[in-house]
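Quick one: structure for this chain?
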Amino acid sequence: MDEKEEKKSSIHAGNGSIVISGDVSGSSVNLVNNNAVNITNVFKPVYRAVDEHLTLPPAVKADVKAEIKDVEKEIQKGGQAEEEGMMRHLRNIQRMAPDILDVVVAALSNPVAGLGMAAKKIAQKMADEAKPKQ
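Got it. Here's what it folds into:
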């Protein structure tokens, strides 16, 4: 790849910006409201995983989606999010669809999502709690 093509695959901006380079096809980074992340895009793969789940009955899928929506609402509170409430929603997801919980935890933990340290800590706590006890 020559230097001119390399520059096409990079995005650079001014002060307090994000620098993205390399192949980011299929990815989306949305900055709105003073650099807050558009959380809808963070959870798209989660909802897709629920929709594509082969063994979950439709009623359970609806319940799982409702719990995910409640997690989204808590995340949007930022520093005001209630950890125990979010953990309750994550436990409900774990009981109904443990494999979907893995997708939720991955979304919350993803540094590209920019959800902040609180979300990452809650995701890690839930991941630790979800591990089989030995």
